[in-house]
Write a structure and sequence with these properties.
The chain has 20 helices and 15 strands. It is an alpha/beta fold.
Length: 588
C-alpha cells in the first residue's frame, strides 16, 4: 500500500504516521543513493520528496540537491542534473526535469498513478485498528441547567472532528464530555426554584431553568443573603442531602435531553457523558494525598492551595475553598486520575477555549508535582467567535442559543433553495435545507484555524461558491448525478491501459492521492481545517475536470477512467465530510 505525504517526506523506514509507498520511493531513491555513494563518496544521505503543487513541476520533486551540494562542494544545479540523469532510466518515470535553484521534478507514467488510486480508495473506509493505547478527546463541556449557546459549537464540532479523524485512522478514541453538573450554580437554581417557580424541575424546560438562574442573579444584587443561601444548598448537596440530590438529578435529566437533541442535529456522538459530580467521592483522597506529599498547603482563610516554583511564573492555585467546598481544579485532578486508571491512555486532549490556558497550566503542573504516572496531556486551544451581524452578539442576562442559530441557518437555506428554483433538485427540500443550514454553521467553524478568532458570517457560510458547506455538498451531488447518468456501479476500478492523461485528469488524480495524507496531517496537528481545505481543493479540481472533459459520453477506456475518477471523488468527499460531521446529499 502506498501514498505520498502532502508536503515533505523523508525516505525513512520508521514513518509510522505517514502513508508512503516505500517501493515507489525506494525505486526513485535507489539510483540517487547509488550516485551519491559511487560518485560523491557520501555514505549516508536522506532523500527528501515533496508533492508538487503545480503540474508544471511534476507529480513530485526533490530539493535534495540543495542540501547535498554543500556536502560535495558542487553547484546545486549540477547535482540536480546528475540526479535527473540517474532517474531517467527508471521504468516508472514518464519525464524528469531540473529546475532552479536545485530541484528535480518527476512525472510518473499514467499506469503508475492509476495503480496508486486503486490503493488510495481504501482510505474511504476506516483503517485497520491499531494496537496503540487509546487517546482521549474531551470536548463540548456544557453547563447543566443552561441551553447550549452558539459558543458551544466551537468545542463541540472541533472536538468531534478531531475524534472522528483519530477513529478513521484506526486509533481507539475515547470521546468524553466533561459536563458542568456540580457547583454553587445548583444552590442558586435551588433557591430560585423555591422562591419564584410553581413548577418542579421535571416539568420545567431548559429555557425556564435558565430564566430562573438569571432571576437569581438579578435578585442577589439587591439581597446578598441569597448567595449565602445558595452556598448552604450546595454544601448540603455535597454532604448528600437526599431532597437536594433528587433536585440535582432531575435538573441533569432535563438538561441532557435538550443537549442530546442538539447533538443529534449536529451529527455529534459522545459516548462518555461524565459530569463533574461523578468525581465527588474521589476528591477527598486526592486532597489528602496532596497534603501528605507536601504539594497542597494551607492558604488564606483556610483554603488549600498549590504553590508553583518561581521559574514557572504560574500563580497560586486553589484546590479547596476555606468552607471545604471543592472547585473546578479539584475535579479536574480527579478526572485525570480516573481516566488514567480506567483507560491507560496514550494521551488526553482537552478541546477548550484559550481563555482557560492558565487553568490547564496549573492543572498539568499540579499532577506532575503529585508524581502520578501520566499520559501526554495537551490543551487544544481554540479562539473566540465574533459576529459580522452585530445583532447576534450576546446580551447581558441572556445567551445567543445554538438552537436558534441553527434554526435561522435552516430558514435561510430554505429561502436559497426556493430562489434557485429548478437548478436545485431534491427529493426532500426540507431535509436538504437542514443539511445545508446546519452544515453551513458547522463547516464554517471548521474551515478556520482553530487557534484563531473566527467571524460568523451568514453570506460566506451559506455561499454556493468558496470554501463552504453548500459548495462541498453541491459538488458531491453533481458527482452522484454523473454516476446515475452513467448507470455506474459502486465498484471503482481504474483501467491501466492509459498512455496519456489530460492535465485536468492528472491534477484530479494527484489531489485524490493526497486524501490519506490530509487525514494524517489533520490528525497529527489536531487541525480540522487542513481537511476542509483539502476537500475544497478536491471540489475545485473535480468541477474543473467536470466542466472541461466529457465523462459519460467519452470513448473507452477514457469513459471508464473518468467515471471511476468521479466515483472516487464522490466517495472521498462523503468520507471527509462525515469525519467533519457534515451531512451530504446525493441530489441537490
Amino acid at each position: 500500500m502506498w501514498q505520498w505525504r502532502v508536503f515533505v517526506v523523508h525516505l525513512r523506514h520508521n514513518l509510522s504516521r505517514s502513508f508512503v509507498h516505500m517501493d515507489i520511493f525506494s525505486q526513485l531513491s535507489a539510483p540517487i543513493n547509488f550516485l551519491i555513494k559511487s560518485d560523491f563518496n557520501v555514505e549516508s544521505f536522506e532523500v527528501e520528496w515533496q508533492f508538487s503543487r503545480e503540474n508544471s513541476h511534476g507529480d513530485f520533486s526533490t530539493p535534495s540537491p540543495l542540501k547535498l551540494s554543500k556536502m560535495v562542494n558542487k553547484l546545486p544545479m549540477e547535482v540536480a542534473e546528475d540526479m535527473c540523469n540517474a532517474l531517467k532510466e527508471e521504468e516508472i518515470i514518464e519525464k524528469c526535469e531540473v529546475a532552479a535553484p536545485g530541484f528535480v521534478n518527476v512525472w510518473l507514467k499514467p499506469r503508475v498513478l492509476l495503480s496508486s488510486l486503486n490503493e488510495a480508495k481504501k482510505y474511504c473506509s476506516p483503517q485497520k485498528k491499531r494496537k496503540d493505547p487509546p487517546v482521549i478527546v474531551e470536548y463540548s463541556q456544557p453547563n447543566i441547567a443552561k441551553p447550549l449557546g452558539i459558543h458551544h459549537i466551537l468545542s463541540t464540532v472541533i472536538g468531534q472532528a478531531i475524534a472522528n479523524t483519530y477513529e478513521h485512522l484506526g486509533y481507539e478514541c475515547k470521546k468524553v464530555n466533561h459536563l458542568g453538573d456540580w457547583g454553587t450554580q445548583f444552590g442558586k437554581l435551588a433557591v430560585a426554584l423555591d422562591r419564584w417557580s410553581n413548577k418542579s424541575v421535571k416539568d420545567s424546560s431548559i429555557d425556564e431553568l435558565l430564566a430562573l438562574y438569571v432571576k437569581f442573579h438579578e435578585e442577589a444584587e439587591k439581597d446578598e443573603s441569597l448567595n449565602e443561601k445558595a452556598r448552604e444548598y450546595f454544601r448540603k448537596l455535597e454532604e448528600g442531602d437526599k431532597k437536594i440530590f433528587e433536585f440535582w438529578k432531575d435538573t441533569v435529566d432535563v438538561s441532557m435531553k435538550a443537549i442530546l437533541k442538539l447533538y443529534d442535529r449536529l451529527n455529534v456522538t459522545i459516548e462518555h457523558q461524565h459530569g463533574e459530580a461523578m468525581y465527588r467521592d474521589a476528591m477527598g483522597p486526592i486532597l489528602e494525598e496532596g497534603k501528605e506529599k507536601g504539594v497542597f498547603m494551607e492558604g488564606k482563610e483556610g483554603a488549600v492551595v498549590v504553590e508553583f516554583s518561581e521559574e514557572l511564573n504560574i500563580p497560586t492555585a486553589v484546590v479547596q475553598k476555606g468552607d471545604s467546598a471543592t472547585i473546578y481544579l479539584t475535579r479536574d485532578l480527579a478526572q485525570i486520575q480516573y481516566r488514567t486508571e480506567r483507560w491507560h491512555p496514550k494521551g488526553i486532549y482537552y478541546v477548550v477555549d484559550r481563555a482557560q490556558q492558565l487553568h490547564f497550566q496549573q492543572l498539568f503542573e499540579t499532577v506532575k508535582m503529585l508524581g502520578w504516572d501520566l499520559p501526554h496531556l495537551e490543551h487544544l486551544i481554540f479562539g473566540r467567535m465574533k459576529f459580522a451581524d452585530k445583532s447576534m452578539s450576546t446580551r447581558k442576562g441572556n445567551i445567543l442559543k445554538l438552537e436558534e442559530v441553527l434554526d435561522e441557518a435552516v430558514n435561510r437555506a430554505e429561502k436559497i433553495i426556493k430562489e434557485h428554483g429548478d437548478s436545485i433538485q431534491s427529493d426532500n427540500p426540507k431535509d436538504l435545507a437542514e443539511m445545508m443550514g446546519v452544515g453551513s454553521v458547522v463547516y464554517g467553524v471548521l474551515t478556520k484555524n482553530r487557534k484563531m478568532d473566527m467571524v460568523f458570517d451568514w453570506d460566506k457560510f451559506l455561499s454556493f461558491e468558496g470554501n463552504s458547506a453548500p459548495y462541498i455538498q453541491y459538488t458531491h451531488a453533481r458527482a452522484c448525478s454523473v454516476l446515475r447518468k452513467a448507470d455506474a456501479s459502486e465498484k471503482i476500478t481504474f483501467p491501466l491501459n492509459i498512455d496519456f492523461l489530460e492535465e485536468n485528469e492528472r491534477n484530479l488524480i494527484k489531489t485524490l492521492l493526497k486524501f490519506s495524507n490530509s487525514l494524517s496531517d489533520s490528525c497529527n496537528a489536531h487541525m480540522p481545517h487542513l481537511l476542509t481545505n483539502y476537500l475544497f481543493s478536491l471540489c475545485q479540481d473535480y468541477n474543473t475536470f467536470y466542466n472541461d472533459l466529457p465523462i459519460v459520453k467519452a470513448d473507452e477506456p477514457l469513459r471508464s477512467l473518468r467515471i471511476s475518477l468521479t466515483a472516487l471523488t464522490a466517495s472521498v468527499i462523503k468520507t471527509g465530510a462525515n469525519i467533519l460531521t457534515l451531512r451530504i446529499p446525493n441530489r441537490m
